[in-house]
Design goal:
This is Thiosulfate sulfurtransferase, rhodanese. This protein is an alpha/beta fold. It is built from eleven helices and 14 strands. The longest helix has 14 residues.
Length: about 270
């Protein structure tokens, strides 16, 4: 059972709990795909987690790059997050960017963090409390990061794995992107795949913006468990790889990590054969 995924009903039951912090992790470019009536509202008392500009390394040439420990601490404290906070993250697209934020907190050593299954659309469909978005300042929190590098992979790690083959890279982009039959969304980025990687599109773990049933996920991941290798999830820019990572929590016993730069970095740095 995946304890990191929280239902709308489950969140509604703890809405008034002390130490609860709800984070809206919606990427604004994705928000534009949502109906107008969703764009200006949030779950009651939610705080905006600016993944693109405040919780990414803006000195990195690649998008939504992993932030430094000090940057993450500073921005988390500015949101009023404490070391004892219970954190629930969501986005307006059902499931898209929120697992990335869940993974970031896990990589910074914070375990008490959950993803709202179905995100804002599911919350609204249940008639649970929302409010108009407003800019707010919060009392500074005391959040401290304790890095967990085991679940993060960098370029050198994945490049060296071409030789050692100790880990299996699971690319979660669409089959067409993996097979290089369509152009990459990023301008000028070549198509293709990391050598020796396999493809399981992240959309396979979702159904109408929510995670598939545990039974379906167990069936989907059966072949990976049989590989009996540590898994490295990769995608376009490190966002949807985290969707697959979260979906496998509580199901796969394999050690797991996310390749932060994913294809955007790999396709730029490694030329085609």
């Amino acid at each position: 059972m995946n304890k990191a995924i929280l239902s709308a009903e489950g969140l509604n039951q703890i809405l008034n709990t002390e130490n609860l912090i709800i984070l809206d992790c919606t990427l604004k470019n994705q928000l534009l795909k949502q109906p107008i009536e969703i764009q200006d509202i949030q779950i009651k008392n939610a705080r905006f987690f600016d993944l693109k500009f405040k919780f990414s390394d803006l000195t990195n040439e690649f998008p939504t790059a992993y932030p430094s420990k000090s940057q993450f601490e500073t921005e988390a404290q500015a949101l009023g997050i404490n070391t004892n906070s219970t954190i629930v993250v969501y986005d307006a697209n059902g499931i898209y960017s929120s697992p990335r934020v869940w993974w970031l907190f896990k990589s910074m050593g914070h375990q008490d963090v959950y993803v709202l299954d179905g995100g804002l659309p599911e919350w609204i469909s249940k008639g649970f409390p929302t409010e108009t978005k407003t800019e707010s300042n919060y009392p500074k929190g005391n959040f401290k990061a304790n890095l967990n590098p085991e679940i993060v992979r960098r370029f050198d790690d994945v490049f060296n794995n071409l030789t050692t083959k100790k880990e299996l890279v699971v690319d979660v982009r669409s089959a067409d992107r993996f097979n290089g039959v369509v152009k990459e969304p990023r301008e000028g980025l070549r198509s293709g795949q990391i050598d020796n990687s396999i493809n399981i599109p992240y959309t396979k773990v979702l159904n109408n913006g929510k995670f598939e049933s545990e039974a379906k996920l167990i069936e989907l991941f059966k072949s990976l468990e049989q590989e009996d290798k540590p898994l490295v999830f990769s995608c376009g820019s490190g966002i949807t790889a985290c969707v697959m990572y979260l979906a496998s929590e509580g199901i796969l016993k394999n050690k797991k990590a996310v390749y932060d730069g994913s294809w955007t970095e790999w396709g730029d740095k490694v030329k085609a054969d």
